[in-house]
Amino acid sequence: GKTARPLLQLHGICKSFGAFQALKDVTFDLRPGEVHVLFGENGAGKSTLIQILCGVQKFDSGRYELFGQDVAGLSPAEARRRGISVVFQEFSLIPEMTVEENLFLGHELTRNGRLAKSEMRKRVRAVLDRLGFDIPPAARVSGLRRAHQQMVEIAKALLLECRVLVLDEPTASLTDHEAGRLLAMVEQLRDEGLGIVYVSHRMAEIDRLADRITVLRDGRHIATLPRERASHGELIELMTGRTFEKF
Ligand code: ADP
Ligand code: MG
């Protein structure tokens, strides 16, 4: 529901890399059952923000509340354990291993105790089926097309049974047809009550998926708008900081 308590909230987050301030006083929240799009030009700070969400980067100041708890100093393992799954732009799969081996990795760390191999295999099949791509579990990742590698990344995130799924430009390497299936899956997860942070520049995806859109520019939080109030023209103006005559 739209008024439910947020799954996570960032307040006044600042983050510098040396002398360069990548995030300046950024506010963001995510509700269950919503797709919250992060929108902004290259270098706006989108990836830095999601790295903070999933514990890969520490922030310098501000507050991060996850499932109602303050989580300054969150580690990636802790974020995963609490139910945040992330698909980064850079792939994390091990190319020389099979799809199934990649999907098994780390599971003994993320759940109480080791899962039996047969049970794990069942879950892997179920997740691959759900994604609707014909990806053989025994195939080597290095032999897969990039689009299929991307789907294995997403399968890996889903296997963690997360409550928050973070996707950084997930359709960048997909054909329109493949992207359509990915979007359908995101909608299904949203309907199941997951909160989804979705980084994208693509207007068609934003129109289809977004419940709210947060615009970042030069590391600053510019606006958070419900999709109904965000025309393409306005989004471009907010993103670039420039006013255009007519769209
Ligand atoms: P986006 O994902 O919106 O393109 P990023 O969050 O990747 O933006 O980057 C925001 C800014 O921070 C960029 O100027 C980038 O060069 C800089 N930046 C990101 N990560 C690092 C890092 N690890 N070290 C130094 N600068 C970084
Ligand atoms: Mg990025």
UniProtKB/TrEMBL annotation:
Query: Can you name the source organism?
Result: Sinorhizobium sojae CCBAU 05684
The record's subcellular locations are: Cell membrane
Protein's name in the database: Ribose ABC transport system, ATP-binding protein RbsA
Identify the residues that the record assigns to the ABC transporter domain, covering every copy.
8-243
Name the family the entry cites. Belongs to the ABC transporter superfamily.
